[in-house]
Specification:
Blueprint: E1 5-9, H1 13-25, E2 29-33, H2 36-46, E3 50-53, H3 62-71, E4 80-84, H4 89-98, E5 102-105, H5 110-131, E6 135-137, E7 140-143, E8 148-151, E9 154-155, H6 160-170, E10 176-178, H7 179-187, H8 195-209, E11 216-219, E12 223-226
Parallel strand pairs: 1-2, 1-3, 3-4, 4-5
Antiparallel strand pairs: 6-7, 7-8, 8-9, 10-12, 11-12
Length: 228
């Protein structure tokens, strides 16, 4: 069984080969990038399980790459381990304050790097299971890790926003949520919201779910709830 997919970002060919060799030997799938711009493109395209990111890159540097990754909804949940020759305290602090999951300095032991990778991936899996469990309710199976919704075992493709709304409501069946609460949970409290925008999403969601869409109930004058 194939292991997790890892994106390695480094412009030094010998370092790239060393890391790739050790990761492949452990059974990981490896994607590489030699620049910041390429790293962003491949992260969006391949959606890796983890990114090893060098700070000193040609063009867009590693910290800017990290900031762009965290701005994008498709990549902001990917854990990042910074791997770099920059050992100054300021650089380490900046990387950690931005939210990187770990920091490894060059030169490094491949065994130590692999141990750090395994620890971060293990923590990620634990957090996913604890915070985002698979929901099975009525005829629906909602898998947040795979971003998958099944109705009687038949997959239903949803947009990212539709999926988040469905998961938010289904986690608390019977609870009534206002339109503002729904949008805050999906986009954040500062997202510009109108009653109409929520209603449009709900209409689309019900249509895609077919008969199962009836689980999303309208509470007049308040908002919506997921049927108990």
């Amino acid at each position: 069984m194939a292991k997790e997919k890892i994106l390695v970002v480094d412009d030094e060919e010998d370092i790239l080969e060393l890391i790739t060799y050790n990761l492949v030997k452990e059974g990981y799938q490896v994607i590489d990038a030699v620049s910041g711009e390429l790293a962003l493109s491949k992260a969006k395209q391949h959606e890796p399980d983890l990114i090893l990111l060098d700070l000193m890159l040609p063009g867009l540097d590693g910290l800017d790459v990290y900031r762009e990754l965290k701005k994008n909804p498709g990549t902001n949940q990917i854990p990042v381990i910074i791997v770099t020759a920059k050992t100054e305290d300021a650089d380490i602090i900046t990387g950690l304050e931005l939210g990187s999951d770990d920091y490894v300095t060059k030169p490094f032991s491949p065994k130590v790097l692999l141990a750090r990778i395994k620890a971060v991936l293990r923590r990620k899996k634990h957090e996913e299971v604890e915070e985002y469990p698979i929901l099975r309710i009525h005829d629906l199976t909602i898998n947040p890790v795979r971003h998958e919704v099944l109705v009687k075992d038949e997959p239903k493709p949803l947009t990212a926003t539709e999926f988040k709304i469905l998961y938010f409501l289904a986690r608390r069946p019977g609870w009534v949520f206002s339109r503002d609460q729904i949008i805050s949970s999906v986009k954040g409290e500062d997202y510009p919201v109108t009653d109409r925008s929520v209603d449009v999403q709900i209409v689309g969601l019900r249509k895609k779910l077919g008969d199962a869409g009836g689980c999303i109930e309208t509470v007049r004058g308040v908002g919506y709830r997921f049927k108990e």
